[in-house]
Specification:
It contains six helices and six strands, in the order αααββαββαββα. It is of the alpha+beta class and about 150 residues long. It has two domains: about 60 residues, Orthogonal Bundle (Arc Repressor Mutant, subunit A), CATH 1.10.10.10; about 80 residues, Gyrase A, domain 2 (2-Layer Sandwich), CATH 3.30.1360. The strands form two sheets. The protein has a four-stranded antiparallel sheet with strand order 3-4-6-5. Strands 1-2 form a two-stranded antiparallel ribbon. The radius of gyration is 20 Å and the shape is elongated. About 20% of the residues are buried.
Length: about 150
């Protein structure tokens, strides 16, 4: 039932601008889903819906799916570009050396990008470790970092 409701929510917000949770409750009730505002609130959180502006109003929209993002979020590229000194990989691990005190910021830039190939990061003062799913992922990841650093 929950999966079907989630699918319907995504369909509804794609078809018409929904500006409030109450509107979404009303639309769901019209199509046979008896829900409360609290249920819709949880659904919005689980679906990671965001409010976007169009014309003069904000409405709900689906965020970019995690699996669709395979890159560092552009606003964090400057952190990567300014902090990384060098890097190396071993199997599915990438060791990244940064200017002193900057490893946490650079690792956070990678973490918030939610790249599917990145399992996680561990940061010290001037070095951080990126754990990737495969060795191929580590090579691709390093290429992306190099492109950002050299841009």
């Amino acid at each position: 039932m929950k999966q079907k409701r989630h699918e319907k929510i995504l369909t509804i917000i794609k078809e018409k601008p929904i500006t409030t949770q109450e509107e979404l409750v009303s639309e769901l009730n019209k199509v046979g889903f008896k829900v409360t505002q609290a249920t819709v609130s949880r659904d919005i959180k689980e679906l990671k819906l965001v409010k976007v502006q169009s014309d003069s109003a904000y409405h709900y929209a689906a965020s970019i799916p995690r699996a669709a993002r395979g890159y560092i979020i552009p606003k964090y590229s400057a952190i990567i570009r300014e902090t990384i000194v060098n890097m190396d990989n071993v199997n599915n691990l990438v060791v990244v050396h940064c200017h002193s005190g900057m490893a946490n910021a650079a690792a956070e830039a990678i973490d918030v990008s939610e790249m599917p190939s990145v399992v996680g990061t561990i940061a010290g003062d001037n070095t951080f470790l990126v754990v990737l799913r495969t060795e191929e992922d580590s090579i691709t990841f390093m290429e992306e970092l190099r492109n950002i650093v050299n841009s």
